[in-house]
Amino acid sequence: MDSVPNTSPGQLRRMAAVWEQVLKRGGIGPEDSFFTLGGQSVMAGTLVRAAGERFGVRIPIRTLFEHSRLGEFTDHVVRSGPLAAPAAAQPDAVPPGTVLPDVPLEMTAFQRRIWLAEQIDPSIRNHVPLAWAVAGRLDPDRLRVALGRLVAGHEILRTRFVDEDGGWSVRLREPWLPPLELLDLGEAPDDTPADTIDGTDDGTDDSTVVPTGVTEWLEATLRLPFDLESGQLLRAALGEFADGRQVLLLCVHHMVIDGESIPVLLAELDRCCATPDRPGQVVQYREFAAHQREQRDSASWHTDLAYWESALEGAPADTPLPAPERPEPNGAFRLPLPAGLLDSLRAVQSEHGVSWFMVAATALAVSLHRWTGLDDTTFGSPTANRDHARFAGLFGPSLNTAVLRSVVTPDSTVLDVLLRMRGEALGALEHQAVEFDDLLNRVKPARRFGHTPYVNVTLNMNLLDDHVAVVDGARLTPLLIDGLRGDYAKFGLTVTMVQLEGRLIGLVSHRGDQLGAADARELADLLAGLLTRFPEALRETVLPRA
Questions:
Q1: Cα(490)–Cα(502) distance, rounded to whole angstroms?
Q2: Are 62 and 378 in contact (CB under 8 A)?
Q3: Which end of the chain, C or N, has fewer beta carbons within 10 A?
Q4: Dihedral of CA 9/10/15/17: which sign?
């Protein structure tokens, strides 16, 4: 491994070990780029956090995007020097299974938003359906015991959200044993393309099939509301085909889980299958809630709030969508994206220091500009507020919502928007401590009923590749279930970009009262077309010439 200025071979090897662990690749050299190795925004946060801990420095996430090759990144980190002092030791966590009825608990801002939405409209379902194909075999009895240990070890899975005289309080209940429903799925399905699951054919070659029995169970549990006061916000089933193959199904309320928690759930479930008692300690969700409260009103918090206030000055609070004359059913479908799209974007990523999420954000922004004719648009994107090393393995929702803004002139090109989106995304990651609700309270945008200011169009990133796991010796591979996304669409338009087994998949869902199916398809086709030819489209002007 060659050295670079200011960097010893040993330092380069230490940094390469961090990159190889995070990126799950071996033999990374000084000239290898984070982007050509498959890096993206979530991995970037993990990488700079791990590298900072290894080298004793605080590394802004922007550093990785500005110095994307291993050698130059290592050189920059080494020249930054060590932190002035190590972080203070954290107090011992409470042993798993301990019920603390007298400890005051509180919701995070994300939980309060979810709770309030369900109080206003009881028909809203904030359920998170999860399904995995099982390679190997899960024993039902061992799985039941493991689920019980999981609940006992993580307070968030036995937390009660209680409505008291129009207000709320949070209480812990004693450990409980989630029932495990056993499903007879009959004969295994034929190798029919997954595009037929929701009755559509988008021309892609994905061959993963979601069995009918799986979708039936998930649809039924999605219709069934959770009792937030019960402290039992997890449902589980194990399906089995006639040939012995299995599918693991979970439905968890969003108050207690998010996408970043899914790998933690699977790792913990595996540990609970093998180990009766947890070795060491677990950070409980109430500690994360307390940390968020402590950060509020700090100097850095006010700096972040000032950033967002400036970033959104004069921004439109709503991206207009053409509502149908009569409300239509909600809808969901796939974007027609070609195989190999991620590979075709790698050169753009490396040249301009952008992640594929930034590319997707650019394509969505340009599509919104062209579709609406507006020169100033906003849309939202969830962020995982886990930049503190202590909460890297947290079980529980840590989501915040960032606003991405795109402003163009008659001469702006797609490349101009890409560079702006790069800055917007990095700024959002660097200033994510301010909760979205606090931002709205400060800027006080105009509101419309049923529309969330700034983020009624939302772009999600979902890394199912990271959710492949081993539980009790069986390999679990996530199943992508398209049709369920439309049933409980929360925003006018939601675009979800999924990275699954090295392939980029786009999913679109929309609220039928705000956007008709034909218009949703038109915008989706515009977006998919731009993504497909993105490297060639960089010099195009965004808005048509007058």
A1: 28
A2: no
A3: C
A4: positive
